[in-house]
Amino acid sequence: MFHDQQTIKLFPCPVWLFDINSDSVEIVNRNTMATIEKMRPSEKEGQPRQQWQSPNDLHTFPEFEELNNIIKSTASDVLKQQGIETDAFLITGCWINIRPPAHDHPAHTHPNNYLSGCYYVNTPEGGDCIVFRDPKMETNIIAPPLTREDQENSRTIMVPVRSGMVVLFPSWLPHLVPPNQGNIERVSIAFNIMFSSYGETISKPLWTFDNNP
Ligand SMILES: [Fe+2]
């Protein structure tokens, strides 16, 4: 028998959740709905409303300054938590996603970025989650029956979300949104973060050439 047991968790796969202050939420949500009103093609007579994605440079729009600040402060916090030396980063893309009832968003990653995330504007009941998938494909080779399903043993994890929340995750982490089972549209804003000077500094070799004999 044993007299002690420890479980050490190696290579964690973090997802960071933030609740944004209500005054900021009010500003971002109001400006988002105004932008949608202005940019989204109008409804076609007799046809159900289609899903819509805005241009992907919303972070350059003055009306998204408050959201930019939210993204920057949450991403800075994550980099600090991760012990990452540089905090100089850019928002490389930012766009609104609208999913009407029954519309989903298939699994994907966000290549060529370090962090990705989502700010939630409107999350109807039944359309209020994001699903992450274990990127370690090997873990599915043997899939024994489970006595319980939770974050310790599942390959797919559903994270509930609500309006005014930011979810940040590594850009390589596959994620999807199941069909919106609510009666109203789900509105969210996705964004990507990358180090500003990746090519100039970070990607250079970490070792130095020793010319001594
Ligand atoms: Fe995504």
Write the layout of secondary structure elements.
Elements: E1 16-19, H1 22-39, E2 52-53, H2 65-81, E3 89-99, E4 105-108, E5 115-122, E6 129-133, E7 156-160, E8 165-170, E9 175-177, E10 186-195, H3 198-202
Bound molecules: fe (ii) ion.
Query: Number of helix segments?
Result: 3
Series of secondary-structure elements, N-terminal to C-terminal: EHEHEEEEEEEEH
Terminal Cα span: 55 Å
Largest sheet: 6 strands, antiparallel
Structure described in brief:
This protein is α+β, with helices and mostly antiparallel strands. Helix content is 19%, strand content 27%.
In words, what does this structure look like?
The chain has helices spanning 22-39, 65-81, 198-202, and strands spanning 16-19, 52-53, 89-99, 105-108, 115-122, 129-133, 156-160, 165-170, 175-177, 186-195. With 213 residues, it is of the alpha+beta class. The protein has one domain (16-39, 49-136, 152-198): Jelly Rolls (Sandwich). The strands form 2 sheets. It has a 6-stranded antiparallel β-sheet. The protein has a 4-stranded antiparallel β-sheet with strand order 4-9-6-7, with no helix packed on it. The longest helix is centred in the N-terminal third of the chain and has 18 residues, at 22-39. The model has no long low-confidence stretch (mean pLDDT 94). Bound molecules: fe (ii) ion. Fe (ii) ion is lined by residues 108, 110, 175, 190.
